[in-house]
Specification:
279 residues; alpha+beta; 15 strands
């Protein structure tokens, strides 16, 4: 059993989010629970992102470009919001820093602007905690200040070298006259995922029937104190009681739990044998 737990620990260390970076990106935390016989099993997964230039308590948002693609023929904004939401959930990004996260697509239809569907009110980073823009509303004003890095990292942490991103928007995040999502016009606005200039959002026009990657933006996320648990109190346990310590059983405690069970079993058997001997 000890060897099995050690192998599981090695697998956790090889998480795709746990690779060297200039900033701090902590991989998903997998809590272990102890069963009746001291056997550990997954209980909760949580992606932890800690941008190095932000302090605990400050908020930020995360952006990614979807690894998958779809056409831009629907005029229902919910279709595209659902697409990026499912992509994020599949990558474990539906809970970040212990907080449920809402994801929306950076696209415009004839009736909805990208800047309204995906409001940007805090600094934006990618899933590797690379800074995209530190300015509130900076996504929609790249003519004045370029992005720090392109949004070319997918939900799973891979970087795309090129690709068309459907946006249906102009450089201000507004519905581009005619070439929006679901419009009957022969062309649709698209962005360049390698760009830090206004062309990241409004680069050219392509046919709506083509397949596109999508940009996704999260709801605001609060930076978590590395010494703080998901309950929100420094040093507290998951229930939020201050002064406690997180109780995650280690390999030694799991072994002791199993050995304790064997000891009780042996005592019961010995007592039963003695009772029979005295009859």
């Amino acid at each position: 059993m000890g060897m099995a737990i050690a192998r599981r620990a090695k697998i956790m260390k090889r998480s795709k989010f746990n690779r060297p970076s200039g900033l701090v990106a902590v991989p998903r935390v997998l809590a272990l629970s102890c069963g009746v016989f001291g056997v550990g099993f997954p209980a909760q997964a949580d992606t932890i992102l800690l941008p190095a230039d932000l302090k605990p308590g400050q908020t930020f948002q995360v952006a990614f470009v979807t690894n998958g693609t779809l056409t831009a023929e629907s005029n229902d904004i919910a279709v595209f919001n659902n697409f990026v939401t499912h992509a994020a959930a599949a990558a474990g990004l539906d809970v970040i820093n212990g907080q449920p996260v809402t994801w929306t697509a950076i696209i415009s239809t004839a009736t909805v602007n990208a800047r309204d569907n995906a409001p940007q009110i805090a600094p934006v980073y990618d899933v590797d905690t690379r800074l995209i823009t530190a300015v509130s509303g900076g996504l929609w004003n790249t003519t004045s200040k370029f992005l720090n890095n392109p949004i070319n990292t997918t939900e799973s942490g891979n970087q795309l070298l090129w690709g068309y991103v459907g946006t249906g928007s102009n450089a201000s995040g507004m519905s581009s006259p005619g070439p929006t999502f679901g419009n009957a016009a022969p062309l649709m606005a698209q962005g360049d995922l390698t760009s830090i200039f206004p062309s990241w959002l409004a680069n050219a026009y392509l046919f709506p029937g083509a397949t596109y990657h999508l940009y996704a933006l999260s709801s605001p996320i609060t930076v978590r104190d590395p010494n703080q648990n998901p309950g929100g109190n420094p040093g507290g346990n998951p229930g939020g009681d201050p002064g406690g310590t997180p109780t995650v059983p280690e390999a030694s405690s799991l072994r002791l739990g199993f050995l304790g069970f064997l000891t009780l079993l042996a005592r019961w058997a010995r007592g039963r044998w003695r009772t029979r001997g005295g009859d």
